[in-house]
Amino acid sequence: MSTPLNTLAVGTAGPRVAFLHGLFGQGRNWTQIAKALSGPDGDAARCLLVDLPDHGRSPWSEDFSYAGYADAVAATLEAHAPGEQWVVVGHSLGGKVSMVLTLTHPDLVASLVVVDIAPRGYGSLERFQGYIDEMRGLPLAALTSRADAEGRFAEPDPGVKSFLLQNLRRSGTEWSWQANLDLVHADAERGSGSLIAGFPDLAGARWDGPVVWLAGGESEYVRDEDVPAMRALFPRTRLVRVNGAAHWVHTDAPGVVVETLRRVLRAL
Question: Which residues have a catalytic role annotated?
């Protein structure tokens, strides 16, 4: 992907930190964490909130590939700060991208923080199918306002509804989804062959830098049996389970995440 990814910068000085969001998310989901990490004067860290391909305001791709996503992020980071290293923080889909990025572009990464995802396949996108169907079924041509969209959107969880509808964009009287729903839908149709739910075979890959693995204590995304595979790729992994947090650890326990990242920066 030759077009740079869309980014939002927070902070003016300090170590460089890149944040990679999850499926249907966007870089600005990490704004609260980035502002806290950069400090009141913005000089404790220079954070870059990245919209992954097919998300936010970044360009769309024709086919999904973790290697392609990682290459696009690498090119964006290199263009933003040539020759510099980054602390890379990735959640869920972004966590998988961050792992592939680190293994395939190791010189870019000073430290890695993986949030509530493991380097394995998760079977299919079945758990997201309802979201995909609801988003694709929203009658965009009939919408009159964002409130109208909210009223038509059947998702009962207000937090999830807000998260998904942040992808709805209005230009004049035209509404569209900024996430590449067709690509995600096509991948979901693969069933157990889903590339997004999977993880690429990186046989022999290994990175010996420092890794913090944050897992939600109430989440099932990271299991004890995932530890050997993670440590085979990243021998210096430190697993931290966050009590009371589910899959969106940075939303459920922002203070814990910020303090963890501050410790990572102090260790550079």
Answer: 92, 182, 247
